[in-house]
Design brief:
About 50% of the residues lie in helices and about 15% in strands. It is α+β, with helices and mostly antiparallel strands. The protein has 3 domains: about 25-325, no CATH class; about 335-505 and about 565-645, no CATH class; about 505-565, no CATH class. A hairpin with a 5-residue loop joins strand 6 (about 155-165) and strand 7. Helix 9 (about 335-360) crosses helix 22 (about 600-650) and helix 19 (about 540-550) packs across helix 20 (about 555-565).
Length: about 650
């Protein structure tokens, strides 16, 4: 064989190998069949039969951030629109076309993007108002795509793609492509029409969730699957709830599909696999650029359906979906507070990332000012060691915090049992909260008229909070009894402290309920909120007064008020710090667990958080007792000074 022929043979072999490699990487794309093009009538019939019913969170009014102002719509609202620009990446991203048409987008690559009025990272209400104008009079519209390939014979997928004008979630960006799909055991559209789906898959961020067609979690309106769209993020779910996402496939944050909601039937436009004609009204399908403003990372405008892996490989995507999502239950447990903090923290972190992008100098100035303020506050107090006993002694704020930590570290075996009282309180709070949260459902079953959601919420919060307040009172009383002797050598044992508290249980409960009624009435009255907060701080030392001074409930509240007089702000700040310490610590540990153990069941997580909080409560109670001792010493000192002045006056 000559050298030239040898080179030709090698070249041919290389081409074959490269092509085979591409086929192995993209096997489905290479062998997909355009079923819709072969049977357009059957494709439309199939798509209409299973067109999803969209459930969108209702808004209380225009620009209500809690509701969903957008709906799946026709991309025509941004095509031939004089307010939309087509830009090319580079050299300042110049506008190459105003009001681009479908034919203008045909065949354009990733170096192009659409630019809407407004700023994606600072949306305000611009996008909502523009969307309302552009979409006026148009129905909710979804796009259908039917796919099948040789890699999965006998399986046909009916996809529905949703185009949203704006994504107002943690990753804000112009435009959003979401969707759901139905899986059939069929080889043709005709077979699919003769049967029914075997499974459905709902897209949720980078991943999603699947369900059998006859699954109880899949709500259907006849043959139409019901899709609950998460407000802002537009992830698709099977029910009305708040969902937790803590991995890349689930989305990082919390999705809310909770009601009240509105339902919409959808009209369907069937899409082919590809478009080869720039004159087609669907020519935009061949556009590979971005459908929104160019930004960094997750804030960048998305690419269209054709660029998604599930467009021509939907079966593989479907098989990799989760079988469930993590629902955040309604209630008042520490675990749920941690999850709520996780949701808020992710949202806050997203806003800070946006701030860094839009105004980094302002964020740096704020951070420096907060740091300087923290240093100033820390240096204003004294941090020299002051022991916790004798309890009645003058101490500065830093000494109380340091002394409480030292006492907890030295006596944790005695103090930990005090926190155990918090565990049944959490259980009772969760059960009562769940019971009262079911009131609207019970009312619906009994067909009782009226709006019960507000009343049920108040009852659930009250029922959930009261047992925890009583538990906190018990822990504070036990810690005070344990520390409240004349010297450290005579300190009460843990068992003795518990017995002392048990003997005073009636007075403790009566004082707590009396304080709750007074404070609650003032807070509910709205106008009395300032006085309610004032009384709440004034009653902070009632548990310590009852177990150490032996007063009844009414006298204990009066004595606590006397001890707080003249040091109300100091008491308020210190008590807030003490209560925040175990909660913040539990939050930090909980956030780390949520991130590190994505597969941890929610009930296990809630139990762990409750245990951690119960272990830390005695530390806060120790500091609270030391603050009481400081108040008594201050009051005694003041009384001695008054007595001395009176004695001098008599002479």
């Amino acid at each position: 064989m000559s050298k030239s022929r040898r080179r030709s043979a090698i070249t041919v072999m290389l081409v074959v190998l490269v092509f085979a490699g591409l086929m192995s990487v993209f096997p489905d794309a290479a062998r997909a069949e355009d079923l819709a093009g072969d049977d357009p009538g059957g494709a439309q019939q199939l798509a209409d039969r299973y067109a999803p019913v969209m459930v969108l969170k209702a808004q209380d009014g225009p620009c209500d951030p809690e509701g969903e102002p957008y709906a799946p719509t026709n991309v025509e609202i941004v095509l031939d629109n004089p307010e939309i620009l087509l830009r090319q990446v580079g050299n300042g991203d110049p506008a190459v076309k105003r009001a681009p048409s479908a034919s203008d987008l045909f065949g354009l690559g990733q170096g192009f993007f659409l630019d809407f009025p407004g700023g994606a990272l600072d949306p305000g209400c611009i996008y909502e108002r523009d969307f309302a104008r552009y979409r006026a009079g148009l129905p909710v519209t979804v796009y259908a795509h039917i796919a099948q390939n040789d890699a999965h014979p006998g399986r046909l997928v009916l996809q529905y793609w949703f185009y949203w004008y704006y994504n107002d979630w943690n990753n804000k960006h112009e435009s959003d492509w979401e969707g759901v799909q139905l899986l059939f055991d069929a080889s043709s559209i005709e077979q699919a029409l003769a049967g029914e789906p075997v499974s459905v898959g709902y897209a949720q961020h980078e991943g999603g969730e699947r369900a059998h067609w006859d699954s109880s979690k899949l709500e259907r309106d006849g043959t139409h699957p019901v899709v609950y769209s998460s407000a802002g993020s537009h992830a698709s779910y099977y029910g009305s709830a708040v969902y937790l996402g803590r991995s890349g496939s689930e989305g990082f944050g919390c999705d809310n599909t909770d009601g009240p909601s509105d339902r919409f039937e959808s009209e369907v436009i069937v899409l082919p696999d590809t478009v080869d004609d720039a004159a087609s009204e669907l020519a935009w399908l061949a556009y590979e650029g971005r459908w929104g403003e160019r930004q960094r990372g997750a804030f960048n405008g998305p690419t269209g359906p054709l660029a998604k892996g599930r467009w021509l490989d939907p079966v593989t995507w479907h098989d990799e979906l989760r079988q469930s999502s993590v629902v955040i239950p309604a209630g008042d447990s520490i675990g749920e507070q941690v999850i709520g903090a996780f949701c808020s923290t992710v949202e806050w972190g997203s806003s800070q990332l946006i701030s860094v992008t839009t105004s980094p100098i302002r964020l740096m100035v704020i951070a420096v000012l907060l740091g300087l303020m923290a240093i100033w506050l820390i240096r204003r107090t004294t941090w020299t060691l002051a022991p916790a006993t004798p309890l009645v002694d003058r101490r500065r704020a830093g000494q109380i915090i340091r002394g409480a930590y030292r006492q907890y570290r030295r006596s944790w075996r005695d103090l930990l049992p005090f926190g155990a009282v918090y565990l049944p309180a959490i259980l009772v709070a969760g059960l009562l909260g769940a019971l009262f949260s079911l009131l609207p459902l019970v009312g619906d079953l009994l067909d009782v008229a009226g709006d019960r959601s507000g009343t049920s919420f108040i009852l659930a919060v009250t029922a959930g909070g009261v047992p925890q307040v009583i538990a906190a009172v018990a822990v504070n009383a036990a810690a005070a009894a344990y520390l409240g002797s004349s010297s450290s050598d005579e300190r009460c044992s843990a068992a003795g402290a518990i017995r002392l508290c048990w003997s005073a249980k009636g007075r403790l409960v009566r004082a707590t309920l009396r304080a709750l009624v007074v404070v609650g009435v003032l807070l509910v009255s709205i106008v009395g909120i300032p006085w309610g907060i004032r009384q709440l701080v004034r009653y902070q030392f009632a548990p310590q007064v009852i177990v150490l001074e032996g007063l009844d409930s009414r006298a204990a509240l009066a004595r606590s008020t006397e001890l707080v007089r003249g040091r109300w702000l100091h008491t308020a700040v210190m008590v807030a710090v003490f209560n925040a310490l175990p909660l913040v610590t539990a939050l930090i540990i909980g956030l780390l667990l949520l991130l590190a153990l994505a597969g941890l069941p929610l009930w296990v997580f809630s139990v762990l958080m409750t245990l951690i909080y119960g272990l830390l409560m005695p530390l806060a109670a120790t500091a609270h007792a030391m603050l009481y001792g400081d108040a008594v010493a201050d009051n005694d000192q003041h009384q001695d000074e008054v007595s001395s002045l009176e004695a001098v006056g008599t002479h």
